[in-house]
């Protein structure tokens, strides 16, 4: 094992480096990412993925992908496959180290039998409500169950009957015998097994009892030889129980280390709440582009590079804090600015007619695909007498600081010509339907022969060649994400304006060949990608990934 020269200076990597120097572990560093397959991964999970796989890569170790599939009431193969897709998409590879807690059900059962034989576990026949009542509170100790002193023989027999399915759900549980007076509620005889007569997505109907998460998690880590079990702070109070299982069973001891989870402003990170949004159809699915799920971010046009950059920027801390979502968007813009092809699209169009331009003439102009990377080359953009520009780029009575098109004002059309507004056509309701302009034929390519300059540059598309598209603009899914006691359900705080659908939009013809997974910069509008679900060759649908405005960058420069 070796310590990387460029290892990041956070407390987890410092612990691992010290463990290597002290020879604490005989094997290479082994970490694991252990999702429960009961929903889709979200941006908070991305932080854990980047940490666990990143640490393993840096120290020449391995990272396991293990599904902690101990609750068949919520788990599904769909979630397993989505998680594998997300981890791969983020750029990480578990190679042949794919595991499931269900792989170890026989061993976990045997461990439970050992605990019974040691007098450290018992079958409890209290109801769930009574178990909670006997458990006590943060200020009052718990009470021993009347079944706590059952004989080892009776406990073994009852546990075997539980395994065979001879009891109904909820009639018995297996509990560890630790300390009902412990100040740590997790040590007050926690449940190890419960009866669940439900088929499992991998083991079918074989098992009638299933291990609880804490029991299965710690021992799965041990079975796999995990050296460092990295988890979020809510598991800090569970660590004494994690260690208790490993100590009393005298098995390989993994080291649990807790770090702060990711809390993102204007975003919900509870998988339960996200599931409620999906099941109650407040969103179109787990991959709705408004969702903070990795699949939702991918559909919206986020890149794995941007998410990895974000996880690196926020770092690893010991205390929970809230990270501004503007930082995630800043990382995305930084990445897309270097990689996204530039195109032109008009979201709210108004027609411009060049009255002195030949009616049948069509020209082509070379437009740079990305000024940040000239190796991406250029593309041909058709130009004709009738064009579309953004309605907001014209003002009939402009202010002194309005530098776009207005009566008598001259502007530049990107890569094309200078034009000047000479007339405005309105319908009976007073809505502008056409803007009549003249063009300067000596300004081909966007610069005049006499050297005059204009302050406004507009994007445009040729009306004759434009492709109609639907464009979806997104806002925050919630207007408030606090979940305190001061009012209503979280769903009451859904933002009614989180999605705006624009159906009369036009994009340049090059986007007829646009590809899923490619995010484009629509000049002056933001970054957009082809929707992977609703877009068809006959109906292009683009999601706005993020706007061009970078509030995080501006704040940090001030």
Structural summary, described in words:
The chain contains 13 helices and 27 strands. Helix 2 links the parallel strand 1 and strand 2. Helix content is 26%, strand content 23%. It has three domains: 11-259, HUPs (Rossmann fold), CATH 3.40.50; 271-341 and 470-557, Ribosomal Protein L25, Chain P (Beta Barrel), CATH 2.40.240.10; 350-371 and 391-452, Ribosomal Protein L25, Chain P (Beta Barrel). The model has no long low-confidence stretch (mean pLDDT 94).
In the sheet with the most strands, the strands line up as 12-25-26-27-23-24-13
Mean pLDDT equals: 94
- Strand % is 15-25%
The stretches of 5 or more residues where confidence is low (pLDDT under 50) are none
CATH fold descriptor of the largest domain: Rossmann fold
Number of domains: 3
Q: How would you summarize what this structure contains?
A:
This protein is α/β, with parallel strands linked by helices and 558 residues long. It is 26% helix and 23% strand. Strand 2 (62-67), helix 3 (77-89) and strand 3 form a beta-alpha-beta unit.
